[in-house]
Amino acid sequence: MESNLLELLELVDSRQDELVDLLSLLIRYKTPAPPARNTEEVQQFIADFLNKKGFMIDKWDVYPGDPNVVGVLKGKRSDEYQSLIVNGHVDVAEVSETEEWEVDPFTPIVKDGVVIGRGAADMKGGMAGALFAIQLMHEAGIDLPGDLIFQSVIGEEVGEAGTLECCKRGYKADFALVVDTSNLQIQGQGGVITGWITVKSKQTHHDATRKNMIHAGGQLFGASAIEKMMKVIQGLQDLERHWSVMKSYPGYDPGTNTINPAVIEGGRHAAFIADECRLWITVHFYPNETHEQVAKEIEEHIQLVAKADPWLRENPPTFEWGGSSMIVDRGEIFPSLEVDPEHQAVKTLSGCHESTLYEQPVIGVSPTVTDGGWFGDAGIPAAIYGPGELKHAHSINEQVSIQQLVDYTKVVLRFMFEWCHTKK
Ligand SMILES: [Zn+2]
């Protein structure tokens, strides 16, 4: 078997043009999110691709025009051997009209050993590598004893939980590999949760009453919701600073856990005292924290801030956390993911990386967030491992190195093969 595998790995080198073609083809499907709702065609392509390799296909609309695809290749001895989920998203970051690309972002080119095009790094490169590895195994007639489940999901770029939908639909495995941008490092991640904080007055006042509510003897118990939100923001800054001093996690610069006041909306008209103000915040937290826990910390702290203010005490701020889409309900959650270096699958993946590339992989943390957190949330051990560098993701002239893509495809092929040949 081992000699078979080595021959297969050599095929990745000799057939790398096909790998590059597959990546170019994926890039040519225009799938930016926003605007989203444009993945039907690429998902049908992936469904057909997997179907021809013996996978049973489950395809369903998460949103109209944005279906998820899950392919299941049932192992011939499922009960005894380890199963694997390979997960990636097909949506890519948006391209704005002012961006000056060297090429049309959706007409990829090969130049100086890299493929340039939107999604090359994030993450059609990872998708192409994993799909090509599946193709080579299929052509070689390899029957994996453990189950292999390929999840091609939508919406990641706008916080739409395509992967959560797969988990909710009941897909699970002994390990999940998220093939998103990691520069061939094995990564966990911190998490992100967004939230809305609302300060609201029970009464509405004409702006001429302001003197009565702010000056001595005015006798009007009222306030501008915008001005009271300033206290909330100050409270958030105090908590953020406290977190940066007191919390840390290996692999992260201190202070990576931030609370960003991202968007503020308030007041109805210049003839009124602002009776409502809403603040949209983005909270980044560490892999060993949960979104529920950080949301609770923020609420508790801000309610104490409110208690110290006579008006806010009577009109406490309210909180709405998370959401299922940045473009539909203006909110998102990316749960965190801790990678256990001692987990058998992580050791196997490290071993595959080492024996293919003759170097030990870095096991660390992603400075960004991916769908990996949903597996952590669902209790499925997981790691992020993909080609491409984060500095290229979402950038002008987004690119991936062909050599790295080839290396990646070899490692991921080997990992699928070895993990699904590992006894439970
Ligand atoms: Zn991504």
Description:
By secondary structure, the chain is an alpha/beta fold. The protein has two domains: 2-189 and 337-419, Zn peptidases (Aminopeptidase, 3-Layer(aba) Sandwich); 191-321, Alpha-Beta Plaits (2-Layer Sandwich), CATH 3.30.70.360. The protein contains twelve helices and 16 strands. The protein has helices at 2-14, 16-28, 40-52, 120-139, 162-168, 210-214, 225-246, 291-307, 310-314, 344-357, 372-377, 402-419, and strands at residues 56-63, 66-73, 84-89, 109-111, 114-116, 148-153, 175-178, 186-189, 191-200, 259-266, 276-285, 318-321, 333-334, 363-366, 382-384, 399-401. A six-stranded mixed sheet has the order 1-2-6-3-7-15, with helices on both faces. Strands 9, 10, 11, 12 and 13 form a five-stranded antiparallel sheet that branches. It has a three-stranded antiparallel sheet with strand order 4-5-16. A hairpin with a 2-residue loop joins strand 4 (109-111) and strand 5. The structure holds zinc ion. The site of zinc ion has 7 residues, from helix 4. GO terms for molecular function: hydrolase activity; metal ion binding. It comes from Alkalihalobacillus alcalophilus ATCC 27647 = CGMCC 1.3604. Keywords: Cobalt, Hydrolase, Metal-binding, Zinc.
Keywords:
424 residues; alpha/beta; Aminopeptidase; Alpha-Beta Plaits; six-stranded mixed β-sheet; five-stranded antiparallel β-sheet; 12 helices; binds zinc ion; Peptidase_M20; metal-binding
